[in-house]
Design goal:
Distance between the termini: 12 Å
CATH topology of the largest domain: Helix Hairpins
Number of helices: 2
Order of helices and strands: HHEEE
Largest sheet: 3 strands, antiparallel
Strand order of the largest sheet: 1-2-3
Helix content: 25-40%
Number of domains: 2
Strand content: 25-35%
CATH class of the largest domain: Mainly Alpha
Structural class: alpha+beta
Radius of gyration: 17 Å
Length: about 110
């Protein structure tokens, strides 16, 4: 089972809303919708790991909170600057969730 981080993105939310509508209209079963979401999770994790080669650096004015649980790091930062080769982007408050892409993700009993 892959990490489910990307279900909370615009693309993931839209997919879930569409699947819910298809279930309501009786066009697909809840079991099929779950299989689609699991495939989405696996594909997003694989695609980002294999196809995205961009690197960026960031600097935070303050590390507000950090936590490590179930092989997942969560950082809450403020006054953050992200830089790549040619661009600078600033964020007032940023949450970073980082998972070990090589480790097996935690299993859930949902």
């Amino acid at each position: 089972m892959a990490y489910q981080l990307y279900r909370n993105t615009t693309l993931g939310n839209t997919l879930q809303e569409t699947l819910d509508e298809l279930i309501q209209f009786g066009q697909i079963t809840p079991t099929l919708a779950l299989k689609v979401l699991v495939h989405f999770d696996r594909t997003m994790n694989q695609s980002l790991a294999q196809k995205v080669k961009n690197r960026l650096t960031f600097k935070a004015g303050k590390l507000n909170t950090y936590r490590f649980c179930d092989n997942v790091w969560t950082f809450l930062l403020s006054d953050v600057e992200f830089r790549d080769v040619s661009e600078l982007c600033k964020g007032e408050t940023v949450k970073i969730v980082a998972c070990d892409g090589k480790a097996a993700p935690p299993t859930t009993n949902d």
